[in-house]
Amino acid sequence: MTAATQGTDPATTTWLDAWTRQEGAERATRAFVAAFGREPDGVWSAPGRVNLIGEHTDYNGGLCLPTALPHRTYVAFARRDDDAVRLASAQRPGDLWTASLGEIGPGTVDGWGAYPAGVAWALADRDGDGDRDRTRDGTPSGFDAAVDSCVPFGAGLSSSAALECAVAVALDDAWGLGLAADRRPELTRACMRAENEVVGAPTGGLDQSASLLCTPGHALLLDFAPDTPDDAFARPRTFEPEALGLTLLVIDTRAEHSLADGQYAERRRTCEDAARRLGVRTLREITPEGLDDALEALADVARRRVRHVVTEVARVEEFVAAADLAGSDQARTSDERATVGARLGALMAASHASLRDDYEVSCAELDTAVEAATAAGAVGARMTGGGFGGSAIALVPRGTEQAVADAVAQAFVDRGHGAPAFLLAPPSGPADRDV
Ligand code: ADP
Ligand code: MG
């Protein structure tokens, strides 16, 4: 046994299971009754997300390809007649967050309640004139909400967007806004404003778009090119790993690195400087054919960063093309399906190498997860999210999930990392009402 020969303890493998929608709704309802002593009007929920490929491309005007997790954040919600906003969370026991709707805005609130409260602020004043917009149901008023969630926190799986988007669809119903039916990009923008302006986290729109727009059985191709209109920004694309005999496994490394924020800002700055030097609005405009010429005009570090961005956008396009093929009758035989699976896996491996070597945003735990999963039979694996910790993903042959997870957990023990956790991630549905 590996453990015995290396003198380390055997690993235990922790699975983070998704709740059923009913279980989630019941938990949030119980939290609501306990916090506020009355029944909620209903329960709304929204998923965390995982990005299949297309990393550090959103702020370069590029492409990303997230799917929604079956893991969701549930919000039991009831309107109030006055202006009070009261928030409880099972993940923050005893910490009842309160404010008045009128006082919420950039710089006026903090703590975890800033995420949901920020969404209320952004949705109450959609035209941005500082007055509350009227709706078909009257003027927005205060509310009580209780949260419970099975999306892991701070694991790069977007618990923050899941919280924002669950509150957004609840408020959309409560205030009669009617945006969830066919104007979801407007809800996306409100959630982004909440996170950027009220919480103060400079994230792109990837997380909120995924949580509001992903559909079951699909990945979402997001196009961040500056002039993309709303109706072309997000396109569902077939992604059915089970049709290829594969399962998407998520490895939460549980590693957190304090450098992450400064490093993120520095990568952004390097890319923006390189775009200026190359005379383009965003690096999206550099094509694979034009890459060599562009690289000659740049110094060493910028050269590697730009090479990652340009090749990563091309990998997203190739991944989407291969995944489409999986759903077509060109992949009828098991040999043909294996070829498609191998292609997806090779693109994931190339993405990881590029993020590790050219973009330099991986870390020891992420590299261990990718190497151990691949050695245990994954067709491909890569870090996902911003990097410096968070999660990795692996496409593994169906039926090998436990064996791959055990091998990764053991590799973490052998290399002295803290224990990781594992999630299964069939592409799932968007933010919606539960009961
Ligand atoms: P990620 O989105 O990758 O999980 P973030 O740092 O962006 O990590 O967001 C995590 C923060 O979002 C938490 O620290 C907390 O403030 C807030 N949050 C997310 N989910 C909940 C929840 N269920 N209850 C309370 N706060 C939450
Ligand atoms: Mg987040």
Automatic annotation (TrEMBL):
<dbReference type="GO" id="GO:0006012">
    <property type="term" value="P:galactose metabolic process"/>
</dbReference>
<dbReference type="InterPro" id="IPR000705">
    <property type="entry name" value="Galactokinase"/>
</dbReference>
<dbReference type="InterPro" id="IPR006206">
    <property type="entry name" value="Mevalonate/galactokinase"/>
</dbReference>
<keyword id="KW-0547">Nucleotide-binding</keyword>
<dbReference type="GO" id="GO:0046872">
    <property type="term" value="F:metal ion binding"/>
</dbReference>
<keyword id="KW-0299">Galactose metabolism</keyword>
<dbReference type="Pfam" id="PF08544">
    <property type="entry name" value="GHMP_kinases_C"/>
</dbReference>
<keyword id="KW-0808">Transferase</keyword>
<keyword id="KW-0067">ATP-binding</keyword>
<dbReference type="InterPro" id="IPR014721">
    <property type="entry name" value="Ribsml_uS5_D2-typ_fold_subgr"/>
</dbReference>
<dbReference type="InterPro" id="IPR013750">
    <property type="entry name" value="GHMP_kinase_C_dom"/>
</dbReference>
<keyword id="KW-0119">Carbohydrate metabolism</keyword>
<dbReference type="Pfam" id="PF00288">
    <property type="entry name" value="GHMP_kinases_N"/>
</dbReference>
<dbReference type="GO" id="GO:0005829">
    <property type="term" value="C:cytosol"/>
</dbReference>
<feature type="domain" description="Galactokinase N-terminal">
    <location>
        <begin position="31"/>
        <end position="79"/>
    </location>
</feature>
<dbReference type="InterPro" id="IPR019741">
    <property type="entry name" value="Galactokinase_CS"/>
</dbReference>
<keyword id="KW-0460">Magnesium</keyword>
<comment type="similarity">
    <text>Belongs to the GHMP kinase family. GalK subfamily.</text>
</comment>
<dbReference type="InterPro" id="IPR006203">
    <property type="entry name" value="GHMP_knse_ATP-bd_CS"/>
</dbReference>
<feature type="domain" description="GHMP kinase N-terminal">
    <location>
        <begin position="120"/>
        <end position="213"/>
    </location>
</feature>
<dbReference type="Pfam" id="PF10509">
    <property type="entry name" value="GalKase_gal_bdg"/>
</dbReference>
<dbReference type="InterPro" id="IPR036554">
    <property type="entry name" value="GHMP_kinase_C_sf"/>
</dbReference>
<dbReference type="InterPro" id="IPR019539">
    <property type="entry name" value="GalKase_N"/>
</dbReference>
<dbReference type="InterPro" id="IPR020568">
    <property type="entry name" value="Ribosomal_Su5_D2-typ_SF"/>
</dbReference>
<feature type="domain" description="GHMP kinase C-terminal">
    <location>
        <begin position="343"/>
        <end position="413"/>
    </location>
</feature>
<protein>
    <recommendedName>
        <fullName>Galactokinase</fullName>
        <ecNumber>2.7.1.6</ecNumber>
    </recommendedName>
</protein>
<dbReference type="GO" id="GO:0004335">
    <property type="term" value="F:galactokinase activity"/>
</dbReference>
<dbReference type="InterPro" id="IPR006204">
    <property type="entry name" value="GHMP_kinase_N_dom"/>
</dbReference>
<keyword id="KW-0479">Metal-binding</keyword>
<dbReference type="GO" id="GO:0005524">
    <property type="term" value="F:ATP binding"/>
</dbReference>
<keyword id="KW-0418">Kinase</keyword>
